[in-house]
Amino acid sequence: MKLLAISGTITGSKTKVVVQKVADEVKKNHPEIEVEVLDLKEYDLQFCDGRDPSTYTGDTKKVIDIVSSADFYIIGTPIFQGSITGALKNLFDLIPPKEFRNKVMGFVATGGTYQHYLVIENQLKPIASYFRAFVAPASVYATNDHFNAKNEIADADVLSRISQLSHEVVHMQKGLKQELQVHL
Known about the structure:
This is NADH-dependent FMN reductase. The chain is α/β, with parallel strands linked by helices and 184 residues long. It has helices at 14-29, 58-69, 86-94, 118-131, 156-183, and strands at residues 2-7, 34-39, 72-78, 104-111, 134-143.
């Protein structure tokens, strides 16, 4: 099984720190899981223009293939203006919805205020529902207060939520995989 941890931003660094930490927890506790981190900063994605995804080339085609090949996901975004990033929305638009169907998603967000944690509930979870994906009950939201001067997560509660999310997505995906094998 392959977990893809996505840092859905082209700016800042805190979201990637949290996404990477969840990925590292999965690697540490479940070495049988293949884990890859996709940092949107490292790719030059075209804007989705409604064409067939198979006609994109370059980085855009590469990212579509990476996302489509994963079995389950950790998806992270900073919250800007009370919403997910345009880069993450564009990624969602580029991927055919069937690629997310019956796959587990866990969500991570970072933001400047404590109130923005609701973006996970009010935007990310409905998008997952549209994709007919399964959502881990736990999520992680971190603000600048949760990081130290070295940009490391320094808050025990956030670290605990990261651990919980890492276990939940693996547990759910293993159970789902087993259930689908029984019924196929």
